[in-house]
């Protein structure tokens, strides 16, 4: 009887904990929505989503268009994925299938350390090291542009992509590989045609989670992309992302003004974007577990 | 899950920080705001703490906008601001029962800097304005090489951003202007970009009385008929012939009292003004001394 009660209490304790998490998430969502509604009402959905000009502190004409920020954010994020996906998946395949146990022992902690570098440090490297290098390589006056941000974000999302892809690849059942090898396929053919495709849903989920990190990253892109609030014309344009806008402007804005609400609206759009990415990765991951 | 929890903790802490108003007793007070003034104020605070070992002053940046928002919300004792508080902000403060008091602590000549390889060394205020409005886009239009201009400036939460816009740009900044996180980043940007132009507090362009290697300071004229003068010469700033000189401020909530008052007295003393000079800025002129006397009632 007493023991049963004790177990009940433990169960209740854990349930309350997870409840708190859900309440916090709903609370954030509620705050974002309730503070965004005045912005949509005052600015108008049309201007907010279709105007490319964001200039809330303008001299002559105040405008709240997030289009250029959304394009900038997507550009930097997609750029980082183009760089980090092949590199990350190849590294994961190497670690789980080809590397000797010794190499593995070195590589895995090194990748984990990469995840631990603070984003300010990465941003700083973007300014003093990567930026000038990009400028030299492409003959530009300066290297504070979307490409710089993409490379930094690629470095930052690599650990997520590598470790989750590696899990997925090592989870492919031995029998698949043995069957392939027994049919006369080489190790290379087995890896490319059997192992990696079998782990594809796990790898996709890893990529999505890495992308979630890239979209929401603030400090490194704020420092290294130049923050020019125009519509980007190429990867060599200076861009200002949504996260950078919020980080820069929220500190100075008087509370309960249109500008204040507009920043929440930007936050809401960003939240929905990352939420969608996470949801998709969750669905894919779930499917993958069912196959297992 | 971890992230969400972290966010929850952060929210709780931010709320607590917002509610708990920091009082200037217990030997501790806080100064926050202008990035231009961070080093200067840090030096002043250190000098004051050397004289008064029982005092602890915390100095952080964040931009003038952050400082002024903080004084309006009554979060700390003094705000640093490189621009004057606006009418609208004054109103907001009064609604909350706060009466910001303006204290001018030093003068700054906002320096316009280019790469040392750039042949251009003189510009009028109008030309600089046109460059930052995006009307002049090539160095050849102002007597330089045929190169596209890249602009380095501050973000909108910066007092320097606001001041420069009011007095030099007189319009909207070009969307092509790169908005850097601080004075030091602008200097860093111009140093590595031979087509760059930027504006920074004079204290950030010099190292022990000399302009930083690789950087060139532009001499500025009010208009074509006036002399081009350097922000390096204190006389140009004192007599107003350097056109983009500006006062640097502390804002306090009401008349400063106790330790904060002692600190302000130190800042305005000859000793404090010498610290400002050693930090690369200029002492306040009689005109501003008069303004301080009026505002402080001392």
From TrEMBL, chain A:
PROSITE patterns, per the entry: ABC_TM1
Transmembrane segments: 12-33, 66-89, 110-134, 146-169, 190-211, 260-280
Annotated localization: Cell membrane
Residue ranges occupied by any ABC transmembrane type-1 domain in the UniProt entry: 70-281
UniProt similarity note: Belongs to the binding-protein-dependent transport system permease family. CysTW subfamily.
Source organism per UniProt: Halonatronomonas betaini
Record membrane topology: Multi-pass membrane protein
Domain of life: Bacteria
Database matches in Gene3D superfamilies: MetI-like (1.10.3720.10)
Principal location class: membrane
Biological function: Part of the binding-protein-dependent transport system for phosphate; probably responsible for the translocation of the substrate across the membrane.
InterPro entries for the chain: MetI-like, MetI-like_sf, Phosphate_PstC, Phosphate_Transport_Permease
Protein's name in the database: Phosphate transport system permease protein
Molecular function in Gene Ontology: phosphate transmembrane transporter activity
CDD domains: TM_PBP2
Any one Pfam family match given in the protein's UniProt record, by short name: BPD_transp_1
Keywords: Cell membrane, Membrane, Phosphate transport, Transmembrane, Transmembrane helix, Transport
An example Gene Ontology CC term for this record: plasma membrane
An individual GO BP term: phosphate ion transport
From TrEMBL, chain B:
Major localization class: membrane
GO cellular component terms listed in the entry, alphabetical order: plasma membrane
Listed GO biological process terms: phosphate ion transport
Family matches, as PANTHER family: PERIPLASMIC PHOSPHATE BINDING COMPONENT OF PHOSPHATE ABC TRANSPORTER (PTHR30570), PHOSPHATE-BINDING PROTEIN PSTS (PTHR30570:SF1)
Compartment(s): Cell membrane
Summary of subunit composition and partner proteins: The complex is composed of two ATP-binding proteins (PstB), two transmembrane proteins (PstC and PstA) and a solute-binding protein (PstS).
Taxonomic lineage from the root: Bacteria, Bacillati, Bacillota, Clostridia, Halanaerobiales
NCBIfam families listed in its UniProt record: ptsS_2
An MF annotation (GO) of this entry: phosphate ion binding
InterPro entries recorded: PBP_domain, Phos-bd, Phosphate_ABC_transporter
Primary role: Involved in the system for phosphate transport across the cytoplasmic membrane.
Transmembrane recorded as keyword: no
Entries under SUPFAM superfamilies matching the protein: Periplasmic binding protein-like II
Keywords, ordered alphabetically: Cell membrane, Lipoprotein, Membrane, Palmitate, Phosphate transport, Signal, Transport
Signal peptide as annotated in the record: 1-24
Protein name: Phosphate-binding protein
The keyword Membrane appears for this protein: yes
Domain of life of the source: Bacteria
Taxonomic source organism: Halonatronomonas betaini
Family statement: Belongs to the PstS family.
Membrane topology: Lipid-anchor
Record domain PBP: where: 26-271
